[in-house]
Design a protein that fits this description.
Number of helices: 12
Largest sheet: 11 strands, mixed
Shape: globular
Oligomer: single chain
Structural class: alpha/beta
Strand content: 25-35%
């Protein structure tokens, strides 16, 4: 078996634009005029923002999340080799409802409980498979082609892997002990697999539960804003070393990436889909995009967890909720509840700041509005942009995590009232470069009264990808260019007395490669300059 690899990671999105309008009084009052002060400093870097440490969240007060029913069967486990269309096979562990003499008689719905390249995790997935087998489900835990006992080479999420997954679903549906209804779920790799096989539309796949799944492998993981992410390379080396070459050979968004994308086939995501998302997870942008692309059949649960099954971290969303989903769609039990609302979201960072679990009919929530904050000459973030100005920073071509490049910092005065971010942030950075290309990283942070910085969310863009990732268009040195930098969505409350900070630089290692060309980057600020458009809720 393989050593357990590092977990996968997760950008670029133009979400639904919110209309500009007068914000609720509570939101408007949250921002104060920025006091006059020196121009934005480039030479000195602020203390790095640290990732939040969310507290335990509890269970949403919704019957869906507390659903369960007692075990009815034992567990029968066997190893199987599932044949696929090219004559090869996929190795799986089969869990069936058990009786006194082995598998219990009768026909039962089927579940693919994880379809992954992580063979060493099969045992932990088997615990979940046993839970469902005891409640009347046939379960498969499978390793992809080239992993575990499945022959071949791993090509994560490629067309062959998707075809194999399709064939496994149809094989399970065709067994004499199957009802023909099959669901699939999984976390990270298995979440990606669930979404990708769903857009291939195998006829017997009736519903899915992707946990921390992708929208687009290129944008979410490999090339963030068109910039390669070094965070993923150790995973590549461990799981699929061939991709160290193939991914580097495809820096633009071509057919290679379309074949590994939900986005390119989003109209085919038609089965009921329960997305389990984490507001601290690497794939939160992709999970929100999937909801926006298929609102009629996608339910989104976003909690205060990082990567992995939330039940392992906080016991918030446990197997009972998943059982309710499968009972509803595979057993056709109308008494099994669905979530009360399309969106179940935890307002982070947690008690004492965020208000915890909330449910909404849509995302962004009704009542959300766009709040535009200008980058001002004196380093502020303000609704009033003030006089036009400029600010510059120098790209450090010998960057290391200990020596990042220079950066520009813009922040509000202390907030008079809470400010609730509930959606994505779109930044328009009006920049000039002395080189023919450059990287822009936008980091959003919560600054406490004592100066402690907590990273809230982030986004990136390679300047030559400003018109999209299908072709690179170099910039003209010295010419100001408008760059639309998408910042990942969040649901986060900044308390009164805190500040909202936006940092702009060319470096955000290890999220993106430190490969920006040497030179200077200049930003237009103030009137007709750079700004951020936040999606916010009234804080009351």
């Amino acid at each position: 078996m393989r050593a357990r690899p590092p977990t996968c990671t997760g950008t670029a999105y133009t979400g639904r634009r919110l209309r500009q309008g007068v914000l609720a009084v509570a939101v408007t009052a949250a921002l104060t005029a920025v006091a006059a002060g020196p121009a934005p400093a480039a030479a000195a870097s602020p203390p790095p923002a640290t990732a939040a440490s969310p507290p335990p969240a509890g269970v949403p007060t919704d019957p869906f999340f507390t659903y369960d029913r007692p075990a009815q069967y034992g567990v029968s486990r066997t190893d199987v080799r599932v044949p696929v269309r090219d004559g090869s096979f996929i190795a799986c562990d089969l869990y069936r409802p058990g009786g006194p003499q082995g598998a219990a008689p009768g026909r039962h719905p089927g579940l693919i409980l994880d379809y992954t390249a992580y063979a060493d995790q099969a045992e932990s997935f088997g615990v979940q498979a046993a839970y469902f087998a005891q409640r009347g489900y046939n379960g498969l835990v499978c390793t992809t082609r080239g992993s575990g006992e499945s022959p071949g080479r791993v090509d994560p999420f490629g067309p062959q892997e998707q075809r194999d997954n399709y064939d496994v679903i149809e094989w399970l549906a065709a067994q004499p002990w199957s009802t023909g209804s099959v669901g699939q779920m999984g976390v990270s790799y298995g979440g990606h697999s669930s979404l990708l096989v769903a857009v291939n539309q195998p006829p017997h796949l009736k519903a899915i539960i992707p946990v921390n799944g992708l929208h687009d492998w290129y944008e979410n993981t490999i090339y963030r804003g068109g910039i390669y992410s070094p965070r993923i390379r150790p995973w590549q080396q461990s799981v699929a070393p061939d991709t160290l070459t193939t991914y580097a050979d495809h820096p633009l968004y071509d057919r290679f990436w379309q074949d590994r994308s939900v986005k390119s086939r989003r109209h085919r995501l038609t089965v009921p889909t329960l997305e389990i998302n984490g507001w601290y997870d690497r794939y939160r942008d992709g999970m929100v995009k999937n909801y926006l692309a298929a609102k009629d059949n996608v339910w989104l649960v976003s909690g205060p967890w990082k990567h992995g099954y939330p039940a392992k971290q906080y016991a918030d969303i446990g197997p009972g909720a998943y059982l309710a989903w499968w009972d509803r769609w595979l057993r056709h039990d109308t008494t099994a509840p669905l979530p009360r609302a399309k969106i179940t979201s935890y307002e982070t960072p947690g008690p004492g700041a965020g208000t915890g679990w909330r449910q909404y009919p849509d995302w962004p929530p009704p009542g959300a509005r766009a709040l535009r904050l200008a980058f001002t000459r004196n380093g502020g973030l303000d609704r009033a942009p003030g006089r036009p100005g400029a600010a510059t920073f120098t790209v450090n071509t010998e960057q290391t995590p200990a020596a990042p490049d220079e950066r520009l910092v813009f922040q509000t005065d202390p907030l008079r009232h809470d400010l609730v971010l509930a959606g994505d942030i779109e930044t328009t950075v009006k920049a000039s470069f002395t080189a023919r290309d450059g990287n822009i990283a936008v980091i959003v942070s919560d600054i406490a009264p004592d100066g402690t910085a907590t990273r809230v969310t982030e986004g990136w863009l390679k300047a030559s990808h400003r018109h999209g990732h299908r072709r690179a268009v170099p910039v003209t040195p010295g010419l100001t260019t408008g760059l639309r930098v998408h910042v990942w969505p969040t649901h986060y409350r900044l308390k009164n007395g805190h500040r909202l900070r936006i940092t702009v630089s060319s470096d955000d290692h290890p999220e993106i490669d430190s490969d920006a060309p040497a030179g200077q980057v200049g930003l237009k600020v103030g009137a007709r300059g750079s700004y951020a458009e936040l999606t916010v809720l009234p804080s009351a």
